[in-house]
Amino acid sequence: MRPATQWVKPGLINESNLRQIIRRPTIRSRLRGENMGRLSLRLAGLVVLWLVAGLSPVFAADFTKPGPFAVGLQKFTIPDISGKHPMATMVWYPAAGPAPDPNAAILMVSMDAPAATTGPYPLVILIHGLDGNGSLYGTLGRQLASYGFVVAAADYDTGLGGPLDEGVSREDGRAIWLLYDHPANVVRVIEYTDSLTAPGGKLAGTIDTSHIGVWGHSSGGTTVFQAGGARVNFRELDAWCAVNKKDPYASDTCQFVGHEQSVATHYGVADPIAAPMPPIWDRRVAALVAGAPDELHAFGDTGIAEVKVPTLIMFASDDAAVSPKHNALWAYDEISSQDKALAVFDRGGHMMFMNSSEPAFKQANALTTAFFLDILKGHPAGRPALMPDAVSFPGLSYKTTLQP
């Protein structure tokens, strides 16, 4: 039996008023260079309320403001899984010093500052979107560190613009990069933080690697699900792509069709169709947050159902780059997590998670903060801030299975 879902003061969206919510799509030139066409978002029977009252968000605690910790930053270089493309990595952490100014426009950081001494603090991994880098999400990294998390953001796509894995085609290399290298490198970053917090490490005793959260945007959101146990399932992917081959929004996921054997070889699997690929994840991962995730049908119904850890999924309904129907909405229904939440913003587009000028940017970061506080730290202010009656600001629909 699936867990009961709580909605914000339910209303009903139908096909007519949905058209007024969806904005005109754009060309996804930055991520794919393809004209993705008109976004078709079908939420038949989905019970939501698009709130229009009020001028500012109301949380049980205002997680749009920084937390009580000063923030330090250290930079490291981590070898990637192939050993050919070292990954520049930024690590934000709670630092010794006065609490941040809650009214400051930018949360300041101190390079190589001494760590705060009340740790260890849970680890959060940030995964950027395709062709991006970790520094694009520095605002979220600093925010989480101010609330008592150690946050690691690596540049996973180092080398993507040049030679990939030797001996494979460019197209094969891209599939390998997204479906194998990315999740394997998340595990690599986690293992590196084990060495940082070990005796003699540069952050000795600071990181609690027994409680790990993973956050990702776009293609990084694909990797988030793998970091939570999802398994690539080429049999179900191929079948789904055969049915949806005329849907322009299926092309992102269906780019992997024809490259199954190359990916499977990296997994050490001879037959890519016989069974799902082995999972690539660290079982200490205990919480997932995915922003505008993409390419999720690479897992199929069977592979996505392997995700059982608490999960928060967010996207904007005017996202013209990816299909929420094929990704975020489908994943929310199909994951096996007993504790999960879905936040849908009415505007912000695909890039809202790195665009601080978007009104939804701070609200998405606040929900992320509350979610990690609740799941990873059991903080008493976390769960109340995730309850439907505690989340009230314009342009949000929200549902959750979380119970008070």
Automatic annotation (TrEMBL):
For this protein, the record's InterPro entries field holds:
AB_hydrolase_fold, FrsA_esterase
Q: What's in the keyword line of the UniProt record?
A: Hydrolase
Concerning Pfam families, the annotation shows: PAF-AH_p_II (PF03403)
Q: Which GO terms describe its molecular function?
A: carboxylic ester hydrolase activity
Q: Which domain of life is it from?
A: Bacteria
Does the UniProt entry include the keyword Transferase? no
Can you name this protein? Uncharacterized protein
